[in-house]
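Homework-ish question, so no full write-ups if that breaks the rules, but can someone show me the predicted structure for this set?
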Amino acid sequence: MRKDRADKILAGLDADEILICDPESIRYLTGKLFHPGERFLGLLLGKDKEPVLFLNALFEAGDIGVRVHKFTDTDDVAEMLKKEINPDHVLAVDKIMQARFLLPLMERGAAKGFVNESLAVDKTRAVKDDEEIALMRKSSEINDLAMAEFTKLIHEGVTEEEVAAQTLAIYQSFGAEAFSFTPIVAFGDNAADPHHMPDDTVLQDGDIVLFDVGCKYHGYCSDMTRTFFWKKAPDAEAERVYNLVRTANEEAEKICRPGARLCDIDKKARDIITEGGYGEDFTHRLGHFIGTEDHEYGDVSSGFDWECVPGNIFSIEPGIYHRGIAGVRIEDLVLITEDGCEVLNHYPKDIQILK
Amino acid sequence: MRKDRADKILAGLDADEILICDPESIRYLTGKLFHPGERFLGLLLGKDKEPVLFLNALFEAGDIGVRVHKFTDTDDVAEMLKKEINPDHVLAVDKIMQARFLLPLMERGAAKGFVNESLAVDKTRAVKDDEEIALMRKSSEINDLAMAEFTKLIHEGVTEEEVAAQTLAIYQSFGAEAFSFTPIVAFGDNAADPHHMPDDTVLQDGDIVLFDVGCKYHGYCSDMTRTFFWKKAPDAEAERVYNLVRTANEEAEKICRPGARLCDIDKKARDIITEGGYGEDFTHRLGHFIGTEDHEYGDVSSGFDWECVPGNIFSIEPGIYHRGIAGVRIEDLVLITEDGCEVLNHYPKDIQILK
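A: Not a homework solution, just the prediction itself:
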């Protein structure tokens, strides 16, 4: 049990106790990742209360330094939880707690009220400590190396799926254990769909080739996007689109520092793209926080006025998606430092024509 | 929109409308799988009501034959939902609806009450139609072929991780698109942990080698376990354990037919293992339902008294986990037919010594 991390969460909590269900948050606190699937998993933390982990008997807790309450598939989970929850207090839950577990607790009146206080956990997880920063740096270093290898997979007649299928082995050859998310490999107009999944599209001369990829290193994620051109240089308008996205990415990164508001960083990139005439084709937030999950709480978007603090790590990923002209996204991870930021990705952003 | 499937769900619903959030259930109804990540995704179905899909603007719905209500990252999801939900009715939700979306609906009084009626969806999905059965059969056929290839990856000095890393390419060579779950490869005593994740354990002479593996074919899952021995035949007690598990598996499969209760199928296998003296080492349910997800609703366990009906597909996977003696699990998928069952896996179960 990482008492320092638990104390930070409790200090930020309005309620007196919180039932944390997110396996990644439980790993953050215990050092161990459980995969409960459809089974219940929960860690009850309270002020002046001994923490307790509720764990199905199928899983082995190991030596995690917290009391473990085991149960089996035929036990009544709500009854079990009710015995440990203080009925006179409001119970905080985390955002991912599922209706199948939450509604029975409510029906039994297990607490005086129920509130979503994920923010107390999320805000703690959003500030990485030195141990986490070292792993995030290494994960992105692997991503840079892997991107160079991925470009070598591009050849006449290849499909997106065939390229994507070879990426995991490359990550593993550099010491990563897994993807941080299913890789996006998009050719041609497919790059104009920001969430395109690799399919049997065959590479055509003049295609855009977009890689949005990341790996996990000791559980910590990387996430980077680069957009290339196959065989032919982009036409004038596609080149303008590329440079708009690149400028938006670089100018936004320049203002990342302690005290900068996330919404202002988003605005910096969005204004550049809007002034270039493509504002309507930049359809998503500028970035997201990242750690042991590819998407952690915290957006670089107009709706988020948090001020950056040292230890924040998030993506800066402007894009323009316009079928028939171009689909371009350029993404790095940035770490907020004491006096500015460190861009964790170093793969070049110049226009690169693959051959 | 698969109206036949939606009508079955509505017929089994106590409430007047249901908000379905499970992406796999939404795929079951619309034919399209969305990966919403932390964003809201929901399909509102009601008696005498036009269905509506709530989809973030980041995703393209395509031609799915249902009204799509788009929203952006800065929209208020609860306000949007409230406008479409009938405030005078009880709203059914599904089991995976998350606290971050459910609690705000409750706070705003969007419905007269909230109940988890996942069962109406789950019971419909638990009866596979002919189209689904054909895909499930093919997925398990690939799993049988792949298991034969996996045994060839076992050699002196190899680690579990090295073996596991090669399995995806083998599945894909047979036409599968992905794993149905992270493969379990366990050597020696690691096989006595039913949820062991492949690590850097090096194969030793005399080790048990357990594969619990499955793939996805057109979205449909397979799942099979076989337990092998490396170089040396098992000692007498390990052989007895193996044969107990095999007998439990085969005898349970023999009684799978329409009208059989799931708890009785579990009992059949459990009694055999208990009479053999290892009841306490069989620590999980006998099986689980499966379809587009590896674990779907429906357990073959003492707590489940459903009667089997044609079209049900579930696993039969007894195991004995006893460190120092043996960790053995043998698993097949079975399909309930009109007059019995069809075992979807055909990989042999005789004791096999790999060399």
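Now go work out the reasoning yourself. Hint: Residues 100 and 305 of chain B are 33 Å apart (CA to CA).
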